[in-house]
Specification:
178 residues, two-stranded antiparallel ribbon, binds protoporphyrin IX containing FE, iron ion binding, ent-isokaurene C2-hydroxylase activity, membrane
Length: 178
C-alpha cells in the first residue's frame, strides 16, 4: 500500500483528489489492478460457450454443440507462466509486461477473449482504478486489533455457475484466522 500511496502522492500531491486524467501516469496503480484481476478474476469461469463444429485442439476432441467453459482462474494461476509465487500478491511481476485486455494475450483474461469478451473493459478499469486510487490517497488502511495481513483469510467462496451470476466472492465467513 505504501508504494501505491507514494506513487499517487508523487503524481497528484495532497492538495486535490485523484482525477481520471491522472490515471495514465499512475503505473504502479496499473500493476496493482492487473495483479488483483489476475488473482481474483470477477468471473472466474467467464461465460459458457457452445462449440459450433467438431474440432480437435491439442489432441482433445471437442464435439459440435459441446458446452465449453474456460477456467480463467486456473489460467491466471498457472505456475509455468506466473512462476512458483503465483499465489502471492506481487504487482511488480507486471513491471516489464505490457498488458492489455484486447483478447490477444491469454496469460490473464479477466475480461474474457474473442467476440464475446467484455465490452465494458475501459469503464471497468477506470472505475476500479479511481476507487482504489482515492481510497489509498485519502486514507491509511490497517486491519483491526493488530491482526497481521498474513492472518487475513483470502479464501474464495464457490458460487455455482448459474446461481449468482458465476462471480467470485471472498469467503467472509472465514475472514480472519485468529
Ligand atoms: C472490472 C470490471 C469488469 C470485469 C472484470 C468484467 C468481466 C467480464 C467477463 C469475464 C465477461 C465474459 C467474457 C467472456 O466470456 O469472454 C464479461 C462480459 C460482459 N460484460 Fe463485463 N466486466 C466488467 C465490467 C463491465 C462493465 C462496466 C460493463 C458495462 C458497462 C460490462 C458489460 C458486459 C457485457 C454486456 C458482457 C457480455 C458480453 C457478451 O456476451 O457479448 N462489463 N465481463
Amino acid at each position: 500500500m505504501k508504494t501505491l500511496q507514494d506513487d499517487i502522492q508523487n503524481e497528484v500531491g495532497n492538495k486535490r483528489m485523484v482525477e481520471e486524467k491522472d490515471l495514465e501516469k499512475l503505473s504502479y496503480l496499473d500493476m496493482v489492478v492487473h495483479e488483483t484481476l489476475r488473482l481474483y478474476p470477477v468471473a472466474p469461469l467467464l461465460l459458457p460457450r457452445e462449440c459450433r463444429e467438431s474440432i480437435t485442439i491439442d489432441g482433445y476432441f471437442i464435439m459440435e454443440k459441446t458446452r465449453v467453459i474456460v477456467n480463467a482462474w486456473a489460467i491466471e494461476r498457472d505456475s509455468s507462466v506466473w512462476s512458483e509465487n503465483y499465489e502471492e500478491f506481487h504487482p511488480e511481476r507486471f513491471i516489464d509486461m505490457k498488458m492489455n485486455y484486447e483478447g490477444h494475450k491469454f496469460k490473464s483474461i479477466p475480461f474474457g477473449s474473442g467476440r464475446r469478451r467484455c465490452p465494458g473493459i475501459e469503464m471497468g478499469l477506470i472505475t476500479i482504478k479511481m476507487v482504489i486510487a482515492q481510497l489509498v490517497h485519502c486514507f491509511n488502511w490497517e486491519l483491526p486489533c493488530n491482526i497481521s495481513p498474513s492472518n487475513l483469510n483470502m479464501e474464495e467462496k464457490f458460487r455455482s455457475l448459474y446461481s449468482k451470476g458465476s462471480t467470485l466472492a471472498r469467503n467472509t465467513e472465514l475472514s480472519l484466522d485468529m
